What we know:
alpha+beta, 5 domains, 5-stranded mixed sheet, 5 helices, 28% helix, 27% strand
Amino acid sequence: MIVSSILISIILNIYTIKADDCEYSTPDGILDLKTLGYKDRPKYNNIPDTGLHTIAYSFNGCFAYSTKDTCQNAAACVIDLTSKQERLIARQTDRVFTYNVGVISIIYTDGDDTTLRVFLLCKTTESFQAHKITDNSFLFNIESECACPGKCTYIPDKPSGHLTGGAVFIIVLLCIIATYLIISILFLRLVKHEQGINLIPNRTLWLQIGHDTIQVLLFIVKMFVPILNLFIYYLFMLIIQTIASESSCVYDVGSGQKLDIRTLGYENGKGPKYDNIPNSSPTKSTLSWNGCFSYSKSDGGNCKDAAACSTSTQTGMSTVIAKQSEVQFEHHDNVNLLIYQTVDRLLAVFLTCSDSDEDTVNGHQDDAQTFSIYVQSRCCCPDKCHYSPDSGSKSISGGAIFLILLISILFVYIIGGIIFLKHTRGATGTDMIPNRLIWLNITLYALDGLRYSIQIVRHRSFNIDYQKI
């Protein structure tokens, strides 16, 4: 038994060797962060902030780098161009990689409360944009061919001809096994004159190991069955909770408070709540945005089922720049952020709490693909505004639909069962209850289980005969 456990442990260790933590598998291929970095220095250096002209950034994919005392073993640093001081904002450890509908996002931290979100966009041209959201939150937008999964292959600076540790271990192990088998077979054949299966060295030992291994596997299966049942139970409860849960537009911001984005939008296709948002960039266009609910514009453009659109002041036509299905929420101390990311568009909506009775909205377009909208409103304050559906809305929530279906099924089961038992089997009284004995036994078992649990808590013995179950 001990020998088989050791053998299983060796096999598991061989096959659980970690892959390169800079390579991520996606439906479109492998993305290798090493192609976005250098080994001894940052690949992206002195990148200016799009909004602030007094700071710049450096970033390197996969490999940690160091420049000055305060920027050591870094994935990214920010430098104050006035004082020339650098600050570490991200480390290579504990990256969080996500891939959603072709959009790649990687979240870094500095090991504390500073967060860096890097969006990788598949492009044939190179581009790097950096944004400072708050003092402890930054956003990088990298366009590169190496951001396309499977497009770039990392070539080490000095290719090594040496074998890896895993390969050496396997070669040594195979050599030991081969030597053991050959010497043992020759010894048994030439010295002890054995034949057939008796030539297998230590045959009884290997049979015992096989038997013990099967016993271990059976034990694991027996242990796994109740865990599987528990998993199915919690999965069922999770499905019910998901169906009956509140809107995906309601976000938890901590301390039991919630921010309801539905209060920042109009539903039922009424149009955007915030329209004709002024654009502070030289681009001749205005912006529009609607919280939570999609809207469309009938001006000849492609602004259909949108979360935000850009409208040209020259042609009057609108172009969609964000969809409601592409939003990600981030909570910060003084501002909440909605990030809408597609393959070729980036919109950041900054939500700032304000006590003013009137909302203030401004917009900015950094380039053809990057937009920002700044909303100051009382409804940007957690729990200040509460959503109430429009009077014309006739939609039913998922939880209500689930309860209606459940009650309908129970009603059909009870009424149909009573009618069947009465007219087919001539049942009367309590015998008309469908599956009466089953429900009675389930109730008794539940009561027994409850009594048993109470006795356990009170440290008393309690005997129940479960053989009848």
